[in-house]
Amino acid sequence: MLTGDIHVWQINLNDASHAFTMSETLLSEEERKRAQQFIFSVHRTRFVLARAFLRVVLSRYVGVPAATISFGYTAAGKPYLAPNTLDLRFNLSHADCRAVCAVTHGCEVGIDIERLRVVPDACSVAARFISRRECDALEATAEAARDESFLTCWTRKEAYVKGRGLGLMCALDGFDVSLSRTTGNALLATRIEEKDERWWVHDVAVGPGFVCSLAVQGHTLAALPTYGRSMRLDCASASICARVQSIGKYSPRTAGSARFENNGECACSD
Questions:
Q1: Average pLDDT of span 114-118
Q2: How far apart are CA 199 and CA 185, in angstroms?
Q3: Whole-angstrom Cα distance, residue 243 to residue 136?
Q4: pLDDT of 222 above 80
Q5: Is residue 126's pLDDT more than 50?
Q6: How many other CB atoms sit within 10 Å of the CB of residue 157?
Q7: Buried b / exposed e across 107-141, counting CB within 10 Å, b at 16+?
Q8: CA-to-CA distance for 160 and 158, rounded, in angstroms?
Q9: What mean pLDDT comes out for the span 242-260?
Q10: Nearest to 258 by CA among 43, 40, 48, 73
Q11: Whole-model pTM above 0.90?
């Protein structure tokens, strides 16, 4: 992987359910304990598959068995490879049956995915979490498009927060994102100390029924080409079908729990 590449991997967790037993063998003891905390088996299965997926993807870059990969965690809970001699950065998110993983080299990255759905009282929810500028934009949105606009806003904000590794310490009204589709930077303004960093936020096409956003540290092109291909990933003695997208290039400056209810299941992000 070259500095400047952005790779986004995705899988359908329902299609990968046959690999559940083998996936458990790839996880660490800490990850297995986290899996047992889920009340419902479907959520536990999705967590295990998503973590195994992350490990298998990273193993393709670092060249070691997926089960031997070790993670460290920042004070805000963002995971990183330990050790990380290749300076890879990554981020994982899953919602419902879809999991996505972004991988970059040398620059921080965040990704978030949400299932498109009805958000009861979207404007009231927005008023509790997002900025005044974003609330005004949401209220001006046609009612038929309001749920998708809210979820687009939410994934863009979560991707940015996760990319910066701020976690729950970040005030979501401390920066503004666009609610409309754009080929440029969806990050409009920030009132959070940047430490001479620049961030770019962009939507990722992951198929019908979901919205997904990516945040990358550094300068980027105004519009990026996207291409992808399907691949088989070996998950112990089973295999899963994944899709990898190479999302253009960026010029780097340097070489979770959901916050609202998701119909009974918390979107899981690292």
A1: 96
A2: 8
A3: 37
A4: no
A5: yes
A6: 28
A7: bbbbbbbbbeeebeebeebbeebbbebbbebbeeb
A8: 5
A9: 54
A10: 43
A11: no
Name residue, tokens 């992350």.
54
Count the Cβ atoms, other than its own, within 10 Å of residue 29.
7
pLDDT of residue 77: 86
pLDDT at 102 over 90: yes
DSSP string, the chain: --TTEEEEEEEETTTTGGGHHHHHHHS-HHHHHHHHT-SSHHHHHHHHHHHHHHHHHHHHHH-S-GGG--EEE-TT--EEESS-TT-EEEEEEEETTEEEEEEEESS-EEEEEEE----TTHHHHHHHHS-HHHHHHHHTS-GGGHHHHHHHHHHHHHHHHHHHT-GGGS-GGGEEE-SS--SS--EEEE-S--TT--EEEEE----TTEEEEEEEESEE-SS--EEEEEEEEEETTEEEEEEEEEEEEEE-S---B-SS--TTS--EE-
User: Domain 5-269 has what CATH class?
Assistant: alpha beta
How far is it, in rounded angstroms, from Cα 138 to Cα 150? 7
- Residue position matching structure tokens 């009974």: 264
Phi first, then psi: give them for residue 181, nearest 5 degrees.
-70, 140
Task: Give the number of C-alpha atoms closer than 13 A to the C-alpha of residue 146, restricted to the C-beta side.
Answer: 19
Report the residue count for the chain: 270
Q: What are phi and psi of 245, to 5 degrees?
A: -110, 135
How far, in Å, CA of 260 to CA of 266, rounded?
8
Domain boundaries, the chain: 5-269
Give Cα separations from 42 to 101, 120, 185 (angstroms): 20, 24, 36
